[in-house]
Structures are given as structure tokens and as C-alpha cells.
Amino acid sequence: MKIDRLLSIVILLLNRPLIQAKELADMFEVSVRTIYRDIDSINTAGIPVVTYQGAGGGIGLMQGYRLDRNVLSERELADIFGALQSVSSYGGEGHQLLMEKISSVIPPSQTAAFRSKTTQMIVDLSPWGLMGPLEERISLLKEALEENTVIAFEYISAEGRASTRTVEPYTLVLKGQSWYLYGFCTERRDFRLFKLLRMKALVKEKRHYTRQDLPLKELPWTDGWKEPQHIQPIRLHFAPEGRHLAEEYFDSEELQQDSSGGYTLTVSYPENDWLYGFLLSFGTVLEVLEPEHIRRRIGELAGGVAAKYASSLPQPQPAHPAE
Question: Helices 32-44 & 2-15, crossing angle to 10 degrees?
Fold first, then answer.
């Protein structure tokens, strides 16, 4: 990804007085033209990188100016390293290379302390077990994003409707525990958010597109869903045999033990199909106390599930009259 490449170039310039554009292009597997665009981006960020012509020339920092190695503190480098570790858990060879480069600028006398800082907290975003098709989709979408290539796929909406989509991909988003793609849908003529697990037959087309600037304040995965009109307070009760589940999913300070030995708590969530599924996942150890309309809806859904399996349950036998 571009941000990885830009940071890598800056780190290389910290350690080398000059480097050839062709060498950088080969190193990052991009064109020389792309490298020069990267240099413009770095200059825009306030780091004066220039090109020296002639024999022995190359790309370097402007004469008379040297970027202080401490522009990023050891703590900040450790934080960047940790963030890259979490992203690389979804398969990122480029991230591994960048992590090695960050490690290389740490003086030998501080290596042990740096290693300690980067292992104090590890965030692994990948699920348990093999990711399989999901990892393949992420890899293909990363290529399409890097190349500005249009993609096509079959999509199943949350309501179960199937459609074929052609999309200009813009951003991969990890929200909660699910991956999404934000892109411009040519069928809807607007930006849409697509859940990767609902994609089928994903292919990268030969057509390219010109990327637009994204209005960052209007992105659909930001805090808009937390606005008061989208939030529903819910009062829950966990039976004593479900206390371990309550302690696993909710903050201990939210849990109030009651006289039965169970827990009562109040939480706030957006009311949607995800919420119903989440509450039903606790089975019989959870009861929705309030509000009444959610309690009623959960009862209807649970009744529908029970009806599907009613024919498989043992039927009561008629009682025999006493002789």
C-alpha cells in the first residue's frame, strides 16, 4: 500500500545519503514514475527530498538539511511497529518488510528495550483457524486497489437479494470483526459498502479507473451509527448458569449481580438484524427485560426457530387409563 511505501522510502533516506529511483522502483515493484510521485508526496508532507543529477547522483535529502532520526521517538516507532503487526496478521508481506526496516534503524544498544515495547501488546486481527477464501479476496482486492483496477462480483445483500456488481474499489475496512470494501458501484452510480463474506466469484477486470478524493467526514463506517437516534438502550438479565458468558462479552463494571445469582445490565446498541442475532446467540441463559418491543421481537424469532425443529422433538405419549 502507498503509505507503507512512503514510510519505507523515508526510513531508507534516514540511513542512506543517496539512492537511485530505479533501485527504489525495483525494491517496491512499481514504476520509476510512481517513485517520483511518491517523492512529491513526501515533499508535500514537509520533508525536503530532492533529486541530484549527474554521475553519482540519486534521490536524497536536500543539502544542508538532515532529518533528525528522532523525528519519530522510539516509543512512536514501537507503536507503528505494533500497528503493522496487527495488519500483517491478515497476510502482508510488505508489512513484514517495513517492520524489518523499522527495526534496522534502532541502535543495537536499544534493541532489547525496543523488542520489549513491541511485545507488550499484540493485536492479532485474524480469526481462529484458516481464513481460506477470505484471505484470497483480501489479497486480490489489495492488488486492485494498488493498480486502480475495476472489480466484478456476485453479491448477496443482508436481505438475501442476489445481484451482480461492478465496482471501483477505494478502501478495505475492518469494522468490528468483519471486512468490508468501500467503493463506487457502477450499477448504483454511488459509493457503497460491501461485506467481503457476501461476495462470490470475485474477479479483477482489465479496466482501470481514476480515483476520486474521498470526503473523509462522510464515510459510512465512522461514528454516525452512534448518534442518539440510532441507539437503543436494552436491559438484559443473565441466568446464573450464563454468568461466564456475561463476563466474557461485557465489562465487569456494567454487570450487577442480583438475588438469583445472575447478572442484570443495561447496554446500548443500534437496533437491527445484527442485534437480534447477537441476543439470540446466548440461548436460554439471556432474557431481554426492556424495551418491550425488542423483548417481543426476540420471542417471535425464537418461536420461529423452535417451530422449525418441532417435528424432530419427541412427542408426548398419551396416558393409559388405569386398569
Answer: 80
CA 15 to centroid of chain Cα atoms = 32
Look up residue 65 and give its three cell numbers: 538539511
- Joined together, the cell numbers standing for residue 171 give 478502501
The whole-number pLDDT of residue 308 equals: 87
Task: Name the phi and psi angles at 35, rounded to 5.
Answer: -60, -40
Q: Mention the CATH class of domain 2-71.
A: mainly alpha
* Cα separation, 128 vs 65, whole angstroms: 48
Say yes or no: domain 133-218 is CATH 2.30.30.
yes
Q: How far is CA 285 from CA 237, 262, 263, 288, 294, in A?
A: 8, 9, 10, 10, 17
CATH topology of domain 228-310: Alpha-Beta Plaits (3.30.70)
Alpha-carbon gap, residue 255 to 238, rounded angstroms: 10
pLDDT, tens digit (0-9, with 9 covering 90-100), for 162-203: 899 999 999 888 876 678 899 999 988 888 889 888 899 999
